[in-house]
Amino acid sequence: MKKFFSLLLAFALVLSLAACGGGGSTPPAADSGTTPPADANEPAPADVTITVAALASGYEEAYPGMWQEVCDAFTAETGVKVNLICDKNLEDVIGPSMQGGDFPDVIHLATGREKGLTEQFIKDRNIAEITDVLSMTVPGESVKVSDKIVGGFTDTSVTNPYGDGATYLAPMFYSPCGLFYNAGLFEEKGWTVPTTWDEMWELAEKAEAEGSYLFTYPTTGYFDAFLYALMYSVGGADFFNKATTYAEGIWDTPEAQQCFDIIAKLASYTNPVTPAQANDQDFTQNQQLVLDNKALFMPNGTWIVGEMAEAPRADGFKWGMTALPAAKAGGSGASYCWLEQAWIPAAAPNLDAAKQFVAFLYSDAACAIFAKGGAVQPVPGLTDNLEGDNKMFYAIYDNGADAAMGNFAAYEAVAGLGTVREVFLDPVNGLVNGTVTVDQWISDVKTASDQMRANLMG
Question: Is there a contact between 70 and 361 (Cβ–Cβ < 8 Å)?
Fold first, then answer.
């Protein structure tokens, strides 16, 4: 893990410098009601109840009641009561009330979701700045929040979307992302996990002979981690940084063409039922394709084990995970570090107590509860005690994979300009079912990228 953390720190610094070097004046912060750093050990305000909205992801499924237990521990430590909203379709639950002006105090919901709620808050600058939380004392402890977070995790475009040096989203659960597969099937067939894309295409023919397909994906949203790792493996940090900031001409480079070609070819080897099930309601049916040996690989994160814990599976099934193959023989594969985020709406009614709660998320007590669900935070030492599948998953960086971390840069909302997911990722469904051509997809990416660059925040 030392190699992993050093890679993340170095890469995060590159991203931070790239974002800060984009020119322009420092953007005004959202109306976050920022106050001088508070001491989280001070007595809690009397009769305060905050609302926390958290996504019920695979971690919550692995340990039901995980978020409620954290909220109860926070109340026991601070006296601040918590009303918890925890749901798989969180956007649908909190969206209507927020449209009416009723906002939760803290939201745990990552970017990359189908409905793009977090991205919309970022674009509208409706997220409270939480840089001061890093200087707060963790409730119940004597250390600052910044001392509990591994270096580099609060210096990326994931947490600092405006490139102004300020933190708006708190780094929460992180997961090595890669291609998940049935290791038992590979053992049975005597197959070797591909380390290059040429080997991957050879395996596709073997899968076809067995009546299976090379690939599937839960939803197109899962192609964000895939695309980030692919860009990093093809062109390294330089290409990654230029691509994620929409540098002029970047999509006309050989590296970009290689990325487009790989995804297009992968689409041709994808189980054809995938697009119809690639939505937030039916995505587990695509994941089931791997458990049933109807597809060999799918992009995913470590939460998949808990999410599919009760699902039926082929005899001898064993989870396996590999980095994306190297772009060429002798090169390195890459794994994107998926990072979930917690954030405070700028209009949160209880800002100080909300910041206390965010600070508490890094306490030893909270970390221990989250770990019961397999959720790992960027806190030193948490990976030391991993066992079983998680130990294998988090060792991916120690086994030679390059770590990619960061997001496409935020841009101002523009009429007619879609989200990153809509422009870059959603067309994969069309590539698979034949309703979108590769040339059309590439042309749309170039057109949208020009608009994104022209409207970068910061």
Answer: yes
Residue 399 lies in a domain: no
Three-class DSSP category at 170: strand
129-155 in b/e form (b: 16+ CB < 10 A) is: bbbbbbebbbbbbeebbbebbbebbbb
Per the domain annotation, does 42 fall within a domain? Answer: yes
Q: Structurally, how many domains does the chain consist of?
A: 2
Burial class of residue 436 (count of CB atoms within 10 Å of its CB; 0-12, 13-18, 19+): middle
Query: Is the predicted pLDDT of residue 112 greater than 90, yes or no?
Result: no
Rounded Cα gap, residues 406 and 310, in angstroms = 32
Residue 279's pLDDT is 93
How many CB atoms are closer than 10 A to CB 203? Answer: 20
Helix axis angle, 254-268 relative to 438-454, nearest 10°? 130
Place of tokens 């791997």: 290
Which helix (H) or strand (E) is 55 found in, with range?
strand 49-55
Is the full-model pTM beyond 0.85? no
Strand, coil or helix: 423:
helix
Q: Is 78 helix (H, G, I), strand (E, B) or coil?
A: helix
Is the domain of 101 the same as that of 204? no
Query: Nearest Cα to 453, choosing from 392, 406, 411, 399?
Result: 411
CA 407, CA 111: separation in Å to the nearest integer? 9
Whether 224 and 79 map to the same domain: the answer is no
Q: Alpha helix locations (H) across 302-437? A: 304-307, 351-360, 364-372, 388-394, 420, 427-433
Is 400 among the domain residues? no
Same domain, 87 and 227: no
Across the range 202-211, mean pLDDT stands at 94
Q: Is residue 70 part of a domain?
A: yes
Q: Looking at 252-322, which runs of residues are DSSP E strands?
A: 295-300, 319-322
- Quote the domain boundaries for residue 36: 25-176+338-386
Whether the Cβ atoms of residue 77 and residue 40 lie closer than 8 Å to each other: no
Residues 319 and 436 in one domain: yes
Where residue 101 sits, what CATH number does that domain have? Answer: 3.40.190.10
pLDDT tens digit string along 128-175? 999 999 999 999 999 999 999 988 788 788 899 887 889 999 999 988
Write out pLDDT tens, residues 367-410: 999 999 989 999 988 888 788 888 888 888 877 888 888 889 98
65/187 same-domain check: no
